[in-house]
Structures are given as C-alpha cells and as structure tokens.
Amino acid sequence: xxxxxxxxKSLSKVFARKYRYATKLEKRDILDEFIExxxxxxxxxxxxxxxxxxxxxxxxxxxxxxxxxxxxxxxKALEKIWxxxxxxxxxxxxxxxxxxxxxxxxxxxxKLTNTVKKKLKKISAAxxxxxxxxxxxxxxRKGTSMTKSTTYLIDKxxxxxxxxxxxxxxxxxxxxxxxxxxxxxxxxxLYSLNATDVGTSWTTCNLVKDKTMFQMLKGLxxxxxxxxxxxxxxxxxxxxxxxxxxxxxxxxxxxxxxxxGRPHKKxxxxxxxxxxxxxxxxxxxxxxxxKPEHADVLRxxxxxxxxxxxxxxxxxxxxxxxxxxxxxxxKYDIPKTPYKRLLERDDVExxxxxxxKNIYEGLNPAKLKRxxxxxxxxxxxxxxxxxxxxxxxxxxxxxxxxxxxPRWRRDSNPRNPNxxxxxxKLEELRRAVDKLGDRGSx
Length: 442
Known about the structure:
Blueprint: H1 5-20, H2 24-38, H3 42-51, H4 56-62, H5 72-84, H6 90-106, H7 114-122, H8 125-132, E1 172-179, E2 191-197, E3 203-208, H9 213-226, E4 233-236, H10 245-253, E5 257-260, H11 270-284, H12 292-312, E6 318-324, E7 327-332, H13 338-344, H14 350-361, H15 365-383, H16 407-410, H17 419-441
Parallel strand pairs: 1-4, 4-5
Antiparallel strand pairs: 1-2, 2-3, 6-7
Helix pairs in contact: 1-2, 1-3, 2-3, 5-7, 6-8, 9-10, 12-15, 15-17
C-alpha cells in the first residue's frame, strides 16, 4: 500500500533524527532503509533527510537570492509600452515590441539604454505577463442585447455559417451594431457600427445615430469608406437594422455579397463579436450616449481608434481546432497587426499597400493613445452618472430595464484589464467626494 503525504512527512522526521548524528557508514544504511520504505530517488531522499528538521524560517534565510535578469528599468519600459499598446496580453505584445521601440524612439517618446533594448527584444510572452502582473487591473460588465430578429427579406439573403470562413479573401467583412444605452433600453441613444475583415482582422468603428434605414445606410457608406480596400462581402446577424431594403439596395449598388448568420447562433459572427469587447467596449465602456456632444466626441475617438488598432494592435487568427471529449485544443498563427497582414496579402493591389505604408510612416502610437485617452476622459465627464454618496432610505427606485451580472464578472480580473472602466470609476468617486464636500459646507 502506498503511503499518504502526511505519513511520508512523519516517517521522514523519524529517519532524519537518526540521520543527523550518524556516521558516514550509518548514514548509508539509514538512507537505504528509508528509500526501501518511502520509494524516493536516492538524491532526493538524502536531501529530504537533511532538510526535514529545518524550520521554514531557517530555509528562507539560507536560500540564495539571485539577482533578477529583467530589472526595474526593463519593467518600467515594458509597462510604458504595454500602456501605449492598450494593455494587450503578453502573446500579442511581445511580437510588436521591436516595432514599438523603433516608433517611440523616432518620435522621442521613449529613451532606452542598449542593455534595456536588448533585454526587451529577447523577452518571452510568459515573462511579459509575469512582470506586468502587479500592474494589471480590471473592471467590466456586459451590456444588453438590442438585436431584434425579423422575417422580412429573410429568404433573399443567404445563410453563411462559422465553418465557411476559412481562407476568406480580403474584403469579406462581418458587421454588428453595438448599443450605447447604459443598461436602459428606453428612449433614443447612439449606436456604433463595428465591421471586421475576416482575412486581415482590419476593424473599423463608425457612429450611427439610430436604427432607422436612413441612418443605417449612412453608417454602411461610412463603413465602406473607412476600409483602405474595396468591400466584396458583408455578413450580419438577423437584426432588423440589417435585413431591410436599404441594406439590400446598398449591397446591390456596390456589388457586395450580402449574407447572414443563423438565428440565435452568435458563433456565425464570431470575428466581429470578439471585437465588440476587445475594441469597442474597452474604449467606450457601458455608459449611455444620447446627446449631440456625445456623438461629436465618439466620431473623434473613432478617427484615432481606427488608426491605432489597425496599425499597432497585433491579432491572432485561429488555424486549427480539435475537440477530444470535453477538451478543445486550439492553434493560432503568429500575432501580426492588420497592417502587416494586409501587406502580406497577394489579393491586395500594390497602390493600396503603398498608401497604407505612407500612412504608417507618419503615425505616432503614443500620440494616438493620448488622443484616445483625451476623448475617453471627455465622454466620462459628460456621460458618467453622479453617484449618491449616501443612499436615501424608503425611496422607490424608478422602474427601468437593466441588465444583471453575476458577481464574478463585476469583480476585478487581472488577466483582462479594461482601462476605460477604471477611469470611469475614478471619475465617479471624484464626483461623490465633491458632493459630500458640498453637503458638509451646506
């Protein structure tokens, strides 16, 4: 019968007392007997007998401290690059570190010694996540679904499932409409039209005032112009904002193949659904935007965000997926920015590649990030609610439709930070403190 771990520890202490004061020959016999009982490797068994009676505090004192290879200078430089890169994960960050160092030094945003640069260029993705772990913060929540299915024109638009998107040519996009309602579906509010090219991961965000046909048509035209290459296909869900005469006429006019996913199957739009959080919600949050000044700031934000995401944010595209029972194994390609992917495509004209190269040469990622942060700060100041520092008792809350979230999604998760929500929390706390100060003075 195999010994349990508590039994092994007790037996080790008994043999260790004999082993400590034994002669060399006696230690050999004790060690042989100990191995016979416990089944350890000889080298490991000898170490157990030497250290099992030593207290934990003594072990810590005797432990040699090795000087870390990635010192504080490397950590500070890495954290700045990570912040400018919008807090992406280590697997995506380590691919663009050399390009980011070159860009930031070109625009005098970062000054590094040769030693620090050498270490940053050879750092691994796992080490990046380990070094950045203390700096990670996250606040997040999900919004309400505003998709209302329709049977109108449903027979005229063919279905395309998730299994038909492999090796898609450049220009075949997935579309989705994201509502900025702040959790309250009543009244009018703004929307964002999110579009992702499947082959290159090129993503653009455009503002839409409402879900009427006229405004959706304007949004589709803006979406088409925001891509540097011609749109060959567009794929949407079954919402009434897409399945209508205006969208169908738009597709016919520009010779765009129009397809849709199956009802209640979000995986048919997986590419754009993933971008709804990683790009849109991470930069606009879950506040309610329903005023003209909100629209002006959102347009300015998207102008900078579209450049920042497509030229400096690497993405990973799924290559293979195998399922064995309940376990799914996924294999991704090497992380690359949509800009790099577009340059490597053979189905993209050289004039388009030259155009985006010229745009890339004049872009400063740190400046773009500052512009995005400035727009986000404006949105938070205008749209963040003023929280009551002390909740009044015996007052019925106004009835409204709000989404609910389990506690584990509201709490901090250091693996996936949302900087916009962190900034919003600080602004709401500041307002609460100001309100308390006004009450005290009154």
